[in-house]
Amino acid sequence: MKLYYTLIIILTGLPLALQAQSPLEKSIKRGSDLYEDFCVSCHMSYGQGIPNVYPPLAKSDFLMQNRKASIKAIKYGQTGEIVVNNKPYIGYMAPPGLSDDEIADVMNYITNTWGNKNTKMITEEEVSLVEK
Amino acid sequence: MRKSISLLTLILITCATCAQQTESEIKAESPVDFHYTTELIVPELNIPWGMAFLPDNSILITEKSGELILFKDNKKTIIQNPPNVYVRGQGGLLDIALHPDYENTGWIYMSYASSEDHEEGGNTALARAKLNNNTLVDFEVLYKAEPNTKKGQHWGSRISFDNDGHIYFSIGDRGNRDENPQDITKDGGKIYRLNDDGSIPSDNPFINTQNAKKAIYSYGHRNPQGMTKHPVTGAIYVNEHGPKGGDEINIIAKGKNYGWPVISYGINYNGTPFTDITEREGMEQPLFYWVPSIAPCGFVIVNSNFYPEWRGNFLVGSLKFQYLERLVVENNQVIKREKLFEHIGRVRNIKQAPNGYLYMAVEGQGIFKIIPNQN
């Protein structure tokens, strides 16, 4: 009986363990560390931003519907007005100086956290093709 | 019943992991009977991190992206041969200051993120150079913090001179809170003091301490991005970013420990605590702390005749709340705070120019002159 349960645990745990090793999961983990360093002081711990100053990333329509523009903003910085969840933000975000693979990791993290979901993984190559 | 008990337990646990913070006693108010306006003097700048006023009233401006700009006769000129800057996170081309005897020496001092050496990543550097035909010449690196790291956080790095020819500059903890600030054998989380030629003053506090970085003047700092000399006492004052809450104003004294991260009025960005004490013997208390954080940057203590009502007041930029904060200080106590020019944008820098006017640098906009209204 004990053996039976052990087997069940191993068999159900195995795919989970393997899944945790997927490239997307690994990228999200790296992205989480980069987020804590480069993004958190403005966009905050739960991606909520600061009202009227820094736009939210959590459940952000801009982020989830404008994949290329979001990559571009991180790669080259963001100027001028953008509208996020029906609210305008007029600010300047300096390019944080991340490499293309790091931008992919951050994008995979922020598009898969705080209720956001994006199964189509962002790759270094995709970031490299985004032009100014 | 059981359900409500477990819910209650859950609530209790949640509350226990959220640290309680005491808000600043003095709250920032909107001014009444305000008679100052701003005039945009230098338009179209992105992150005007530092500025220095030359004797001919032209302005040297650093852009974080690495450009050094000379604004003269209403025209911007890009200065050639600027420092080789490593743009990463909060790092880039940072502060700029003139030698107190600039007219005779010609020295211009700059702090910046540098990847000098052979490792990847970077750390804060201080250099000096002279300006000749819109080109920097005689460039010398005076200090370069080690080791290089790819962390994007907390480079410092404001520059000030005291009345005795020393140069002071700050380097933040470089995102290594638990190793750098409390260790005087490591760079980061420090205020440094050098002679104007980069040599180490013989009376620096740790000059005889084995393995210490001899340039250190004080330690236990997080990320000071405001520094100024008190116009009356000549003491060096800094303001520094806390994490979530716990920004501070400190008067810098020789060899002192300002406590980061052992003591702090701040908590982690995610709301969890990293320390439960705000004071300890042998560690300095701030002159003032901000809870919630305003994200202070730039610092001046006003002594110009153009602003008699503000004489002796502290002015500090707020990046987070996008105003200029005026703090009225009596006997080293903040007794009043005001939000000036609300919604103007992220205030990166504030300086009093030799002509007596205050100039404020705002991200995404440029440099504003603060003008007292007539009548």
From TrEMBL, chain B:
<feature type="domain" description="Glucose/Sorbosone dehydrogenase">
    <location>
        <begin position="45"/>
        <end position="364"/>
    </location>
</feature>
<feature type="signal peptide">
    <location>
        <begin position="1"/>
        <end position="19"/>
    </location>
</feature>
<dbReference type="InterPro" id="IPR011041">
    <property type="entry name" value="Quinoprot_gluc/sorb_DH_b-prop"/>
</dbReference>
<protein>
    <submittedName>
        <fullName>PQQ-dependent sugar dehydrogenase</fullName>
    </submittedName>
</protein>
<keyword id="KW-0732">Signal</keyword>
<dbReference type="Pfam" id="PF07995">
    <property type="entry name" value="GSDH"/>
</dbReference>
<dbReference type="InterPro" id="IPR011042">
    <property type="entry name" value="6-blade_b-propeller_TolB-like"/>
</dbReference>
<dbReference type="InterPro" id="IPR012938">
    <property type="entry name" value="Glc/Sorbosone_DH"/>
</dbReference>
